Amino acid sequence: MIRTRFAPSPNGLLHLGHAYAAIVAHDLARQHGGEFLLRIEDIDAARSRTELAEAMIEDLRWLGLHWDGPVVWQSTRLGSYGAAADRLRAMGLLYPCRCTRADIAAAATDHGPDGLIYPGTCRGRDVDPAGAAWRLDMARAVEIAGPLVWEDELAGPQHATPEIFGDIVLLRKEAPASYHLAATLDDAADGITLVTRGADLFAASHVHRLLQALLDLPVPRWHHHGLIVEGDGRKLAKRRGSPSLADMRRDGADGRALADALRHALLPAGLSLTTGIGWTT
Ligand code: GLU
């Protein structure tokens, strides 16, 4: 049986791009007689707001989407992130880092999918771990895991290349876990068999596949769908004025009709849908 999920972070209101992501995940599950889960990724206490999560739940109901089981709140799972980090630490794969953004900007030379690649300043150094972030020693992790492959339903088989990210942060100073660690562990805990999300997160799956290998987690399939973009090719974003679903809902728009329009890629003027393949930010 297939099980998909929609996993929004409650740090802003949902817009049409999120609606499309939720519909893709929902419909793929329903078309195959499977299950669709809603997981609220609320571990970043400084940026997450309960009222935004509540608005998201209302938005999804308004779109006519139903999920199976109770809503999963990532903030209830903190223990599992710490346990996984302990395991990676015992394997000698994590190191503490106290570098600031400015330190990294001054020393980094290369870019990866998430921005500047960490130049490895704290690797092998005796750094006080109190209040530090913890980074993955990527070269060592890749060596231990060996060659890995993963499968995207649209883009086909992929060789995992997590090294393009460098030594990523897995435990953050200000939040209990990074997106990569929390999402990978939760997809396993939730029994997700098909990870559906936008093609802007395609590269993240290289890292998630590596973490699955290191932590002996089941390996799902992926479906990185196309993104709704503006005329200039940029993704929708609240900060650039893309209307929120909550605004449309309060203005009396018909959510189910909107969902059906998105299913047929019928978009408001000026917006288009990219293919899921080969997206780079
Ligand atoms: N919380 C992430 C986001 O909103 C989820 C990404 C995912 O589906 O893995 O971007």
Helix proportion of residues, in percent? Answer: 25-40%
CATH topology of the largest domain: Rossmann fold
- Strand order within the widest beta sheet: 1-2-3
Within CATH, the superfamily of the largest domain carries the name HUPs
CATH architecture of the largest domain: 3-Layer(aba) Sandwich
How is the biggest beta sheet arranged? 3 strands, parallel
Mean pLDDT rating = 94
Classification by helices and strands: alpha/beta
N-to-C series of helices and strands? EHEHEHEHEEEHEEEHEHEEHHE
Catalogue the unreliable spans. Answer: none
- Total beta strands: 14
Q: What percentage of amino acids are in beta strands?
A: 15-25%
- Count of runs of 4 or more consecutive helical residues: 9
What's the CATH C level of the largest domain?
Answer: Alpha Beta
- Give the CA-based shape: globular
How many domain modules? 2
Give structural notes:
By secondary structure, the chain is an alpha/beta fold. The protein has two domains: 3-77 and 187-273, HUPs (Rossmann fold, 3-Layer(aba) Sandwich); 79-149 and 159-171, no CATH class. It contains nine helices and 14 strands. The strands form six sheets. It has a three-stranded parallel sheet. Helix 2 (50-62) links the parallel strand 2 and strand 3. Helix 6 crosses helix 7 (204-214). The mean pLDDT is 94. The protein binds glutamic acid. Glutamic acid binds at residues 7-9, 41, 183, 197, 201. Its EC number is 6.1.1.-. Belongs to the class-I aminoacyl-tRNA synthetase family. This is tRNA glutamyl-Q(34) synthetase GluQRS.
